[in-house]
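WP5 quarterly update. Target: NUDIX hydrolase. Source organism: Actinomadura alba. Length: 401 aa.
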Amino acid sequence: MNRDVVVVYAGEPPPADWHAAVFLAGPTPRRPETASWRPEMIERIRDQWRGDGRLVVFDPERRDGIYEDYTAQVEWEERSLHLADQVIFYVPREPATMPALTTNVEWGMWHDSGRVVFGAPPEAPGNRYLLHYAHKYGVPTATTPADTVAAALSEIGAGAHRSGGEREVPLLIWRTESFQCWYEAQCAAGNTLRAARVVWTFRGRAQALAYWAVHVHVHVAAEDRVKRNEVVISRPDTSVVALYRRGATPDDTMVVLVREFRSAAATPDGFVHELPGGSGPGDPLAQAVSELDEETGLVIEPSRLRAHGARQMAATVSAHRAHLFSAEITAGEFDRLRGTGPHGVVADGERTHVEIHTYGEIRAGGLVDWATLGLLAEALDGPRPRPGPPPVRSGAGERPS
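Structure tokens (predicted):
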């Protein structure tokens, strides 16, 4: 097993590739006679790393101990912090020799990033406020170097091999299905990720990552140029279901919508009117059945749903996709839907109301957004042969690991 641990000291360039990277954040001794805590932390990392590839440790202390260029030091730390999969905060604060004032600022910048651990000896003063926010944001905490390292490496696991611009995508995002789906498409087009910087993340229930945004530089193979000024935003894919009952004409076809308050809605009534759907782990078809039950109260056999495939909902804004399903339901099922509600998962603040409109009313009244109208157009178009996958272009990249 390759248990290669590489230490990169302040001012030194990072390696070209790795499986994982950590940054040792915390107070640096102000006096030469004060021993640093970082050498012990590095030894604990060497002892505990069990990944299959290289682990990089960013140490903000200089190899030669000479600090001459303050701006260069700050910029190196800032870049290395963003490269890290885990930022290990260890704060053995001593007011006279290691006051950790800069550490307080760094903690404020990174405590809610989803990729930090916090350690400090129980007797170290001045850490109560930092610990408060560690507990509030679900940050793993420890009281010894060994346990702090163990907490960080537990989050990292075996890591994942990344090189070039891929190194700048932390494991927190790299491991998501939404990122891998986007990146696979870029590689298949022959494009190359040159650089990346996490803009923000949002975590939902149980601190699970729900949304992410990454500023990327992508070499566009077809145009031989680098596009630098865009942010990729994504979330888990959704499963949506179009329920309908055909009328004499397409515009007479009855369609089931759900009305729900969504904060982003810029509509006259402040609600969105959309197809039942949502996201969750597992098979998209099973998710579609579950969302129908949650949002409309209708329990339907999976075999009744017709799959239309998956597409992006708003390709200029978000990388996530919607898996579309549809089913023609009976008059009795329509009647039952009219008399039920509200629905939704109360614990998530979800409250949905079933609405039934004709397709003509939906088109003419501007009741839904363009994406939902497109979903309905596909679902109501009737069964037809599905196109095969597009041909792979010459020079397409490999699927990311």
